[in-house]
Amino acid sequence: MDVITAHLNADFDCLGAMVAALRLYPGALLTFSGSQEKGVRDFIAQHPDYLPPLARAKEIDLDKVSRLVIVDCQQAERIGRFGQIIGRPGLEVHIYDHHPVTADSIRPTGGVIRPCGAVSTIMAGLLRERGIALTAEEATLVMLGIYEDTGRLLFQPTTSDDYLAAAWLLEQGARLNIVANSISQDLTSQQVSLLNTLLKSLKTTAVNGVKISIAHAASDSYIPDIAILAHLMRDMENLDALFLVVAMEKRIYLVARSRVPEVDTGEILRHFHGGGHASAASATVHDLSLKQVLEKLEELLRIAVSPRVSARDLMSSPVKTMPIGITIAEARELLTRYNCNAMPVMAGERMVGIISRRIVEKALYHDLGEAPVTDFMHTEFLRGEPSTLLADIQAYMVEGNRRFVPVFEGAQLVGAVTRTDLLRHMYGGRREEPEALYDREALTPAPKLRSIAGQIERRLPPATIALLRELGSTADDLGLSVYAVGGFVRDLLLGVENLDVDVTVEGDGIFFAERFAAGHGFRVRSHPAFATAVVIRPDGAKLDVASTRLEFYESPGMLPTVERSSLRHDLYRRDFTINTLAFCLNGDRFGLLTDFFGGQQDIQERVVRVLHNLSFVEDPTRVFRAIRFEQRLGFHIAPHTENLMRGAVRMNVLDKVGGTRLLNELILILREREPTGTIMRMASLGLLPSIHPSLKLTPETERTVREAAQVLAWFRLLYLEDHCEQWQVYFLSLCDRLKHEEFGEICSRLAIPGRVVTRILGHRRRALGLLDALQRRLKHGPPVRNSEIYSCFHDLPLEILLYLAARTRYENVRRCVTLYITRLRLVRCDLDGTSLLALGLKPGPRVGEILAHLLATRLDGEISTPEEERRLAMDLILRQSAD
């Protein structure tokens, strides 16, 4: 008999994987090993028709089980009564799990164990590979498992396999409305980010045979409802006991969850002045750091996870004591003799106090060696009994900074628990430093400074390196600190070529620029209002120099007010963390990288992250820059940053941005090598209506934009000398479905210069009319001659022509446009007006008419040589004379 089961307190991932497993093991009994999560119980009650028949675990005859299929679990103690038959001769055990194998894992005879976001993903992949179809109900159950364990495909452990499995389940008919209604409430972007950080620091260690998991994180702002994250992490990772420690603002928040009786979370967090019950508790700490809380929690856990251990198990006996009548000097002699750090002071058989080596040494320092020990001993102490729990003893020692707890049976002193006894129990007598229960590396912040001099030497041309060192030398002479900053540094770390150097100076940037330029024969153009200058070299190359400064905004969308400030403030005013890096150019610190805001990590993780929550409100154009960096660098916008972008769009903050600033950002986007993806991203974030209410990415507009990319790629391959403003081609394509008056409005909104408007707007209406006429002619009329094509297009700008080639859906029309661009527009007559007059033609309009006729015949291939052209011209002139 085959039986399919999962761990106790089954979640949706268990349910989905079990249902999928039933397809792989037809005829097997499906059973829960114990209870189910509340969400699963609610789902079963609401949708009983979704589930196949379930057997009751306690009614299954274990002797008849020949194959046990376990999903989402590898521990015998977590599968209820089925754990009794693990290891039985002849029993097949197939395990399907996405958690790592540990020392206490069941050794399977079959199944699949590999990392991914959910075990339901593994099961769906196996079904897909074997061509086994699912019903819509089954697909929905498996999808529930994936969505719960991956946090709707957003949690850190999520893999591409999870997405592929979800896509396949959708094809099988999975009902997302049922999934959405059944999964617990959505996480905010801040909670998702915090959850990913917690998962990275999560560490599980066995203490006294019980697995303890600790995760920690820090956040500058308060994030509510972290208890939800504890629940998710416990279920996602199948954890016995989980403790979350999160530093937010000026407090440390602890949340604990336990599934095992050995870990009483309420009792443990009581020592942090928290509360709760055995399986769930929380606490808030005000006066300790994150590291201190973690250290205290570790000490507590090493004792409290085994509540059966008491003072009787650890106390030392007999106890060395000292009589009440001795002096401080004599007390030190006894402490040294017996190598003790503390001793009870006895009045006969009655204990009256405790004296510690620390107090004795302090008294001797003050020349109090002859004073009686009773003057300085502790007279208040914990009177332990053999049954006193170690959690109480440990709390007394830690919170009271004590080293010694006497143990009594009645009035008789029978033993003592010292701090050494406590440590020996906690660490099993090991002399080496024990492994911490929490992730120490994740707690230690990355250094803010490191040298990238080697990368500078390897990745920059010698001329650029020389320029940077000359800037540093000038700064040294002036007693200033100078840094390369921004995108130049970012691209250097990415290995992307960027020789556009930006420099910032801690001090007067204009004064520095003037002195540097004077020493090298360069020119300077300064802007005192912004504390910036541009150094112009003889070859025309420019170097931007700025004073370190901070910026504040009087109102959203306005240009900032600038004040001098520190390097840290200067970097904080920038748009994204990846652009906040700087390296020093001064001689003794050349190449030393400064990273205040985690820019290096975000570059490594390929994330575009905003520095603060009001960034897009203060400067809405950063919305466009975020998308531009994401698409150009192949990064992804951080979830919280994207949420802030959407919020800024909803608040219509872009309406407050001047047209010129908006146009500049749009031009930068449309000048990117491949801006198509950026345009699609702008549309998905709702940015296009912010430029004009009628601007939308319809399927037809999207087709035109994509065709524009193909046409421009073709044009670049021609290697023609003609200059083409690429951004204008994309702009025309993006605005393709706008009416002419709407196109005029968007040009006005963006403050497009008059000469550009004349060049584009003035020709757009006529060009579209010509395109329609040409399409009708090619479809219904006689063949179009080359001279007619030339006549249509000869006075249109190149950008308009490329836009027309992208816009048309007819290949024969596109061939006409490309023929004109590649060949017809380059055709010229050998004769000109002066030549015709020399041949005897009288001045007048006839000169232009004959030249047009000559060009038309050349275009149509009726003449091809200078001699033929001359004969035709003579013939036309003679006809005029005859007339």
What is the level 1 CATH name of the largest domain? Answer: Alpha Beta
| CATH architectural name of the largest domain | Alpha-Beta Complex
Quaternary organisation: single chain
Strand order of the largest sheet: 17-26-25-18-19-22-21-20
Tell me the CATH superfamily of the largest domain. inorganic pyrophosphatase (n-terminal core)
Distance between the termini: 111 Å
Flag low-confidence runs.
Answer: 428-433, 444-448, 552-557
| CA-based shape | elongated
Total of domains: 6
Query: Radius of gyration, rounded?
Result: 40 Å
CATH names the topology of the largest domain as inorganic pyrophosphatase (n-terminal core)
The mean pLDDT is: 87
Backbone structural class: alpha/beta
Strand content: 15-25%
Measured as a percent range, the helix fraction is 40-55%
* Total of helices: 38
Strand segment count: 28
- Major beta-sheet overview: 8 strands, mixed
Could you characterize what this model shows?
- The protein has 883 residues and is α/β, with parallel strands linked by helices.
- The chain has 38 helices and 28 strands.
- The strands form seven sheets. It has an eight-stranded mixed beta sheet with strand order 17-26-25-18-19-22-21-20.
- Strand 12 (322-323), helix 12 and strand 13 form a beta-alpha-beta unit.
- Helix 12 crosses helix 13 (357-365).
- It is elongated and about 150 Å long.
